């Protein structure tokens, strides 16, 4: 599916988004609008699009999405206009400088069930994305503090300051969004300080050039933000996130990542001096994410609510500066308060208020328990077996309370009254275990602690003996009888669906201490792994460098040498274009036990999903697999790979489809040989496109096929529909 775009505004940011749209697979720029004819003309000439008015774009049948890059005071009106016109909307921040106007705009978007994404480009920067991924993977534990430095080389022009809303609404608003994103909690208190230190004229305009902000959540997490309009050394953008287990940071970008040492000392190239240079890839990733959301009909990664919350924090910061105090950031209770919550509890004691809050929660998609109001309860609280800190909950959703009590009695009998004390002791020893017991051995350690000598001693009242046994095992660095023995399993994840994994593959995932996985491995497959297993992404993402195979070999071997059970998780089958041989040889050279767990290959899985049999007694008795991205394509002899009685499956051939078709026809294959292109095979968004070999390049280009995709060539691809060949021949004429 191709999304046709129009861009409103041909200024600096409009040009950036025009470039991003035209470079994004599945997107096409068809129109530009700007009151400055010269600016619009430059974009139209550069990217081959039409120049249209805003009203013409709103009425255009060939435009599915717009990117709003106009002055801020036009954003809300344009969002509403295009939401009513049925277009997906991407809008640069902020939606408006007035909170109430933003709220009415979002109400319109909701009423029209429109798609709206607000541009917060830092979320799509490769460094920031990698940082957030490390947090989500649990690499640093629970986030506790976020420190952000954002400093510009100089202040913007006075005319811009007058319309931008000032430093908090224009510059710091990005930091507010990043803080919410990284903390994972909403902000409760805002404490801000602001000064004019660089240019007195900025003060006369009612703005500031130097600010510091402290944000605090209800749980006590902090984010500290420092902004300045005078970083003489270049564009300064740094972030550090401190967690309970460590920290992760992203540093500045320089003109080059080198350091020279000479007689005069150490020298490094200067920082980039313009935010557009720093975030070039972020803007591209941002548009790509928007296109993907529109094409797939899913929620955008940043929303109008994100824009609203960031602006609300900016307003709170301004109030904090004006009043010289911390500001409690709490708005009116709306459905937005309940959005994303798993459950809510209401206990005001006022029947009318209880009913009103229940309605707001339902509007926000949150199930609610209203105390002493069963008629308003979407959920009930269970009976508890309390062995603090061990708690077991038993519920029947109000249908059988007597049964719940019976089950509670049975569980009470199963769990020793002093079990909570053992859990508490384990909690006090977790730090020592983390220091002395290797990560790969901790699971076995705790399994022994709760099922062997320590638990037996604790249950019979010998608490000191239990504690001594635990301390002795900690000093030894492992549970008794647990010898560290690392291993590597090369596991095939199949074509994508989790239920297509083999039982052995699932078993290895549940045993693994660390999992190294590729881009095409579905997130649902990873959910089958142990919750505490480390997950390391070693694939390629847009805008980032791929891991060299040598590095992958090294890290999986190193992990196994530390005594960890390693799973190298690959899409499809490890032995088919999965570089299993290189990883196998690296493991064997290091003397590490290695196992290959086969998976359903991409060819088998996608063909089956497309209801294509790769063999047929009348049409094909030979199947060949070929890598389409291989070098020296024109020099290879493919004459025996495809033709009568043969099926050819080409992996990674989307970008080289034209070369592949030319090569096969040059080697003697008939131009009217049936072909099928299977995109996102065995996934919900799978597409099966059919045609003839001669038309393969045009088919891939016209349908905007993107990876992952397989190309199947042979008579078997036409057997499901006898008219396919006739229609393809007709179309080719």
Description:
The chain is α/β, with parallel strands linked by helices and 733 residues long. The protein has seven domains: 3-114, NAD(P)-binding Rossmann-like Domain (Rossmann fold); 123-282 and 306-313, Dihydrodipicolinate Reductase, domain 2 (2-Layer Sandwich), CATH 3.30.360; 335-376, no CATH class; 383-414, 2-Layer Sandwich (Double Stranded RNA Binding Domain), CATH 3.30.160; 419-476; 487-600, 3-Layer(aba) Sandwich (Cobalt-precorrin-4 Transmethylase, domain 1), CATH 3.40.1010.10; 603-732, 2-Layer Sandwich (Methyltransferase, Cobalt-precorrin-4 Transmethylase, Domain 2). Helix content is 39%, strand content 21%. A seven-stranded mixed β-sheet has the order 12-11-7-10-9-8-15. A six-stranded parallel β-sheet has the order 3-2-1-4-5-6, sandwiched between helices. Strands 22-21-23-20-24 form a five-stranded parallel β-sheet, with helices on both faces. Residues 721-729 have low confidence and may be disordered.
